[in-house]
Design brief:
Helix content: 25-40%
Number of helices: 8
CATH class of the largest domain: Alpha Beta
CATH topology of the largest domain: Rossmann fold
CATH superfamily of the largest domain: P-loop containing nucleotide triphosphate hydrolases
Number of strands: 12
Order of helices and strands: EEEHEEHEHHHEHEHEEHEE
Radius of gyration: 18 Å
């Protein structure tokens, strides 16, 4: 299963995305990285039709952006950046919202993230990490083949961040998984491929082991070193050059 993307987007005369093209496949986790303002979140929103970009998003050759929202929801799902829940829906009610268009499996989704036994609790009782898991469960209940996640580990402690990444590692076996990641070490440790955005354009794309420090130094504007530690590549920033 293959997702093919080529998109541009502008606010008036201001270009946000310019000819960003890439593909993603089932069986791999594609991480999108880049500094603030690079267009990462905008790219995901254009891919799912929240923002109207120019270009195409095709799944197995079928154009998604021309579909009605209900039909598109059966094929591609967007998980936004975590925010504080405003209403005291139960966990189950909140996840059910993701299944209305597709009649998805709420029970299976909640069991997948380990929250089925707590389904009657208000979501306002959840920690930040637990709420992020609920957002992912809502996306899973939609039952689509593609899941897009916008900074799913942002503001989480290391335990919940790793739990989220391990879940994505499992999900890639059955879905196309694309995640915008703020934590570069999580990207290096979990992604199968990395897409680097810079000023609205694709700057670099490849495997984590191929990513050189010069790419990150150019994009982020700081000195970095990439070290090998216990079989993993670890990025260390040179704060003296900030």
């Amino acid at each position: 299963m293959k997702l093919q993307v080529r998109l541009s987007f502008s606010y008036g005369n201001h270009k946000i995305l310019e000819g960003v093209d890439f593909s993603a496949r089932k069986g791999e986790l594609l991480a999108i990285i880049g500094p603030n303002g690079a267009g990462k979140s905008t790219l995901l929103k254009c891919m799912v039709g929240i923002l109207e970009g120019k270009g195409s998003v095709t799944l197995e050759g079928k154009e998604l952006l021309g579909l009605k929202p209900g039909e598109r929801a059966k094929m591609i799902t967007y998980v936004p950046q975590s925010s504080t829940p405003e209403f005291a829906f139960t966990i189950e009610e909140f996840v059910e919202m993701g299944s209305y268009a597709t009649k998805g499996d709420v029970e299976s989704a909640l069991k997948r993230v380990g929250l089925w036994e707590r389904r009657k609790e208000p979501i306002t009782f959840l920690s930040g990490g637990e709420y992020q898991l609920t957002l992912i469960a809502r996306a899973l209940a939609q039952g689509s083949d593609v899941i897009l996640l916008d900074e799913p580990t942002s503001h989480l402690d290391i335990n919940h961040a790793l739990r989220i990444m391990e879940l994505l590692k499992e999900l890639k076996k059955e879905k196309i998984v694309v995640a915008v990641l703020h934590d570069l070490n999580l990207a290096l440790g979990y992604a199968d491929r990395i897409l680097v955005l810079h000023r609205g354009k694709k700057f670099w794309e490849g495997k984590p082991e191929e990513l050189g420090s010069e790419v990150l130094e150019t994009v982020y504007g700081i000195g970095v070193s990439i070290l090998n530690l216990h079989g993993r590549r670890i990025l260390i920033a040179d704060i003296s050059k900030v």
